[in-house]
Amino acid sequence: MKRLGALTISIVIGSLVLSVCSLSAWGQGGNPPAFTKESGQTSGHGYTGVEQTFQENVEQQIKTLHDQGQQAALKGDASFFEAHLAASYFGIGGDGRLRTKAESIQDLKSGGIKYESIDERDVKVNTYGNTAVVNSTASVKLTSNGKSIGGDYRATFVYVKQGGNWKEVAFQATPVVQEGR
Length: 181
Prior knowledge:
By secondary structure, this protein is α+β, with helices and mostly antiparallel strands. The chain is built from four helices and six strands, in the order αααββαββββ.
C-alpha cells in the first residue's frame, strides 16, 4: 500500500514538473510553436495550418460583415444595424460626436444621416480571439441634418463575437488632414 502511495505521488510530481517545463514558452512573449502531427515539426509561428485557416476564415467573415454594413449604410437600412450593433455600441463620427446604438439607428431611420458614397480602401483586419479590429481609409459623402459633408477619413471598427455572432461594438472616424494645412 505504501508503494502504491509513493508511486502515485511520483506520478503527480512528474506530471507537475512536465507541465511547468512546457509552460516556459508561454512566458517568452507569445504562443509556443505549433506542432503538427503530419510533419512532426513545429512551424515556429504559433499556429498550425488548421489554426491559420480558421484565422483567415474569421477575417473573411469580418470583411463580409463589414462590407454588408457599408452597403446597409448606403441604403439607409437601419434594420441591419439593429441586428449587428451590440447593445453597448458607441460610435464617434468625423464630427467628434458620440452616438449610441439607438442614436445611430434613429439617425438612419429619420434621414438625419444619408450616405451618398463610401469609397473605402486600405482595409486591414486584425483578429484577437473573439475580437476583430478593422482599420481603413475612406472617401465619404453624406448629408447630416441637411448639411453636406465629405472628405477622407481614417476609421476604426471593433467587432466582438457575442452569443456566437459578430457584433460591432465601437467605431471612430477621424478626418484626414491634407498635408500643408
